[in-house]
Amino acid sequence: MTAVEEFSRGPLEGLIVCPVCDATYQLQRPKNGEQAVCVRCHKVLIAPRRKAGMQIIAVAVAVVVLIIAASLFPFLQISAAGRTNAVSILDAALSFTQGPMLVLALLTAGFIIFVPLLRMLLTLYVLVPVVLDKPPARHAIRAFRVSEAMRPWSMAEIFALGCAVALVKVADLATVSFGPAFWMFGVLVVLVIVQDSFMCKWSVWNSLEHPKKR
Amino acid sequence: MVGMEFSGTPQKTVTAREAGLVACTRCARAWPIGTEACGRCGARLVSRDVNSLQRVWALWLVGLMCYVPANTYPMLRTQQLFSVDESTIIGGAVELAHYGAFGIATIILVASVVIPLGKFWAIAFLALSVGKKGGFPSSRRLLMYEVVEYIGRWSMIDIFVVAILSALVQLQGLAAITPGPAAFFFALSVIFTMLSAQAFDPRMIWDAQATDEKARDHG
In angstroms, rounded to a whole number, what is the distance separating the alpha carbons of residues A136 and B99? Predict the structure, then answer.
């Protein structure tokens, strides 16, 4: 029996297809901590971790708190010749205010505050019932879809590097001091990156399809 | 790491299309060919998104068109006591290098000039090489696609620098920085090239190679 016949005859549920190169495999679930990798293009297909769900939830709650706090508290402050100016992240995002620049302000605020925040909230909405062995929340599938679609538009880490560049540019113009939000934002960036490495998309889709057997 | 290998011949990969299946690119589930939407995650199913190339080119062109004014208009307008200074992206980087901040000048130049231009070239190359036989190996082209996907977002850094600077440097009468029109066009250019790269269907990279191999097997 050729591989092609084998694939079309067996249950389709037992197959996994690499989304990057279309190579088809019989599903073999790796052990926790191991990865299933596409032989042809080396895309990581499944990467389960022990207690990943609980860790992701914990990190997501922390990130939500940090985003809200970091966007309201003072972020950076400069002073020169007795004049000072302190800004929050929200101020920085909304600094484009004239005419078409307003669109840019909304986009910037979206990329660094609202998209990361919304992604974390959606992740919580999807994962909390799954981790507690309850049936998935209503529209959980749509929620996870939106959350994944927003992944490339969440740019907190890029903003962090932008801060570093801006600080060097300002350094010879005025004295810069850091507000509490600056440090919160630093922690937040690390957590967002950790979060992305814990998340195994395939495992989430699979548990949404089969809520009971995990 | 365990390789996902199917029982039988391990060297030769079988694509979903060859097996009479269509794959969901979002959740990796297989469905019989002709299925319209994924039963697991609801994504629209297409075996090969051939029309995607038109979308790639359209978005690519808009991105390129926005990139021109992004470089000719001023990015930053700096007011200091009695002088007003307007600088473009490249002008700003050159100025930084004059002050001796070579590291930062390099970051700015790489993020706003090298990466965007490299991206335009790479997307065009990928879209043109689809369906061409021989030439560049698929694994190399895939690497290029992944680099473009990963690195494209980082061009936004210049926009964020402008945002931080113009919010922060507002010292009444002493110094003030305001964003120039280039910031608007630059952001649009980054967004459109990101969309263009996302519209590309990487599965097409492998099809030409697969036909090559088949020709070799039969010949």
Answer: 58
Burial A162-181 (b: 16+ CB within 10 A, else e): bbebbbbbbeebbebeebeb
Residue A57, domain member (yes or no): yes
| Separation between Cα atoms, residue A75 and residue A113, nearest integer Å | 14
Mutate to test the interface with A, among B168, B192, B194, B201 (most CBs of A within 10 A): B168
What is the rounded CA–CA span in Å between residue B206 and residue A24?
Answer: 13
Q: Which of A16, A83, A141 sits opposite B4 (nearest CB)?
A: A16
Domain extent at residue A2: 1-48
Please report residues of B whose CB lies closer than 8 A to that of A36. 2-4
A197 occurs within a structural domain: yes
Residues 20-79 of A with CB under 8 A from B: 20-26, 28, 30, 34-41, 45, 76, 78
> Structural domain tally of chain A?
2
pLDDT at residue B12 greater than cutoff 70: no
Decide which of B195 and A9 is more confident: B195
A208 neighbourhood in chain B, CB within 8 Å: 40-41
Under the banding of pLDDT at 50, 70 and 90, the label for residue B8 is very low
- Do both A42 and A55 map to the same domain? no
Cβ atoms of A113 and A67 closer than 8 Å = yes
**Nearest CA-CA distance, residue B142 and chain A, Å:** 8
Put simply, whether B42 touches A (Cβ < 8 Å) is yes
ipTM attached to this prediction: 0.84
Residues A143-154 have pLDDT tens digits of: 998 998 898 898
Does the distance separating the beta carbons of B166 and A209 come in below 8 Å?
no
Average pLDDT over residues A150-166: 87
Kindly state whether B213 is in contact with chain A, defined as any CB-CB distance less than 8 angstroms: no
pLDDT tens string B62-100? 999 999 999 999 988 888 777 888 888 888 888 878 877
Name residue B64's beta-bridge partners.
Answer: none
